[in-house]
Design brief:
Layout (H helix, E strand, L loop, with lengths): L1 E4 L19 H7 L1 H4 L5 H15 L12 E6 L11 H7 L3 E5 L6 E7 L15 H18 L3 E7 L3 E8 L2 H13 L8 H11 L5 E6 L5 H13 L3 E8 L1 H5 L6 E4 L7 E3 L1 H25 L3 E6 L4 H10 L1
Parallel strand pairs: 4-5, 4-7, 7-8, 8-11
Antiparallel strand pairs: 1-9, 2-3, 5-6, 9-10
């Protein structure tokens, strides 16, 4: 639901720029959503985010994919000497080779909510929820490709809209961004059935990042997430909300424009604020606790949050 004053506009202060050291000002500017909002095109924004984020790191959070050790077997002529376990040789004076469960690269799937509610952009907000999610997904996808792993994409609302199989080359990442750039959020949300449909397609155990405002029945959302747990994927749910949705700072009689087939509503926000915030906090607790109980990671992101902080939050776990 979008909102605008029915009378004269009254917009709260958008906030101050974050304090940064002089030496990191250029990097911080690249990662500030207000600065990036002035740049045209997802490709340019994603490039600036990744460039600034990597330049600002003291050490990379990426290690590459560590394949899972299974057992030793005796060395036979022709085996790769890189896999000889020299510690075992030192103890036994015999050559043994390490064997692994899987020698393929890590696979990461980006699941992007393209329902109409993601269009919301509060007064003074630099980016809509959808634009913010696009930038984060594009940047995360690029970081995965940089470490020579594979990334795939699914866009969804009340059904699966676009499906891009995972690959790990720069041309594939360009295709991923082209899909996101051409997508327009217009339909209703139905996370239960769409998450089930996506989980059915993931045949290999993978990393899964879900970018969504989660504005749906939380029980339906959690039912969809259970399918991923059943298939043993490692899931991170990134709930992206606008500061105005979280704080409800509207003043004066306000016209709330309906999204996802909800009707418009004229109301006095002061009479709604307490009940709205109480209901919102209950909703967020249900989503967060339900996700964690499923053994998945949960992060709440605001669209005014700098991208370096958001990326660090995503990658930290």
């Amino acid at each position: 639901m979008t909102a605008e004053p029915a009378g004269s506009p009254q917009q709260p202060n958008a906030g101050k720029q974050p304090d940064v050291d002089e030496g990191t000002t250029r990097i911080a500017e690249r990662l500030d959503p207000r600065i990036l909002a002035r740049l045209k095109g997802l490709r340019v924004r994603a490039h600036r985010i990744v460039e600034g984020y990597v330049a600002g790191l003291h050490r990379s959070p990426f290690r590459g994919f560590s394949i899972e050790f299974a057992e030793h077997r005796e060395y036979v002529p022709g085996d790769d000497l890189r896999y000889v376990d020299w510690k075992v040789y030192g103890r036994t004076d015999k050559y043994y080779v390490k064997q692994y469960e899987d020698e393929t690269n890590l696979v990461c799937y980006l699941l992007l909510d393209v329902s109409e509610s993601m269009r919301y952009q509060g007064p003074g907000a630099p980016l809509s929820k959808f634009e913010y999610a696009q930038c984060l997904a594009a940047a995360l996808g690029y970081l995965v490709v940089m470490q020579r792993d594979a990334v795939g994409l699914a866009t969804f609302d009340n059904q699966l809209r676009q499906w891009l199989r995972p690959a790990g080359n720069p041309a594939h990442h360009q295709q991923l961004m082209s899909i996101m750039e051409s997508t327009r959020p217009v339909a209703k949300t139905a996370m239960d059935q769409t998450l089930h449909a996506i989980a059915e397609r993931l045949t290999k155990r993978s990393l899964v990042y879900i970018f969504s405002d989660c504005l749906d029945d939380p029980d339906a959302l959690l039912r969809g997430l259970k399918h991923f747990r059943h298939r043993r994927h490692e899931v991170t749910l990134l709930q992206i909300l606008d500061p105005y949705e979280l704080e409800f700072p509207f003043r004066g009689t306000t016209l709330f424009r309906g999204l996802e087939q909800f009707p418009d509503l004229v109301a006095d926000p002061s009479s709604l604020r307490a009940a709205y915030l109480e209901e919102l906090q209950h909703f967020l607790r249900v989503v967060r606790s339900g996700t964690v109980e499923l053994g998945m990671a949960y992060r709440l992101l605001r669209t005014d949050q700098p991208f370096d902080r958001a990326l660090t939050t995503i990658l930290h776990h």
